[in-house]
Amino acid sequence: MKKTVELNINGQGYDVLLSPRELLVDVLRKKAGLIGPKKGCGEGQCGACTVLLDGQPVVSCLTLAIACHGRPIVTIEGMAQAGRLSVLQQAFVDHGAIQCGFCTPGMLLSARALLDENADPSEQDIRSGLVGNLCRCTGYVKIVEAIQDAAHRMQDAAHRTQDAAGATHADGEHNSGVRA
To answer: Residues with Cβ < 8 Å from 71, sequence gap 6 or more?
Structure first.
């Protein structure tokens, strides 16, 4: 028996009529029109279908869509903001971490979940965070470098934001930027 379920995909609500056995990857691709999650192995082994569910990477080829009712889902289409690539996406471009592109959405979403939990990951942390995401085109070196670079860029941006916030006195006057 089909049931109407509300899916929160990339911050937008979708009321979708689902059968209990429909997989999230199929619903995202066929009913929501989002082609970022790829149907690769269909067994949860390759990571090409990875999305974030409640902020955690999941393989959408093994996730029942009906179980996602009301829970936030993020696909690669939801990473860019206002038409601009995220810091992580830009780092992948800058480092040539994108080859054929089939695994890239899953890699980026797994990396985003990692950086959300660990702002300064070691190389081993990154490699562990990518377990379950297979790339047949690269040796992962450029992918790891891109994630390390994105982490540094995000830390630098956070420091600049903190510095800018600290540049205003409690009375609202702007500091010259000279520190005592």
So the answer is: 8, 53, 54
What pLDDT does residue 139 have? Answer: 80
pTM beyond 0.70: yes
- Classify 131 as helix, strand or coil: coil
Residues of the chain with pLDDT under 70: 167-180
C-alpha 147: how far from chain center: 12
User: To 5 degrees, how large is the angle CA 75–CA 65–CA 128?
Assistant: 50
Strands 56-59 and 50-53: antiparallel
Q: Tell me: do 129 and 56 sit in the same domain.
A: no
As a whole number of angstroms, the distance between CA 174 and CA 160 comes to 15
Within-domain flag for 25 = yes
Cβ atoms of residues 101 and 38 within 8 Å: no
Cα angle for residues 40, 13, 23 (degrees, 5° grid):
30
> Could you give phi then psi for residue 76, rounded to 5 degrees?
-55, -30
Domain count, the chain: 2
What phi-psi label fits residue 11: left (phi over 0), alpha (psi between -120 and 50 degrees) or beta? Answer: left
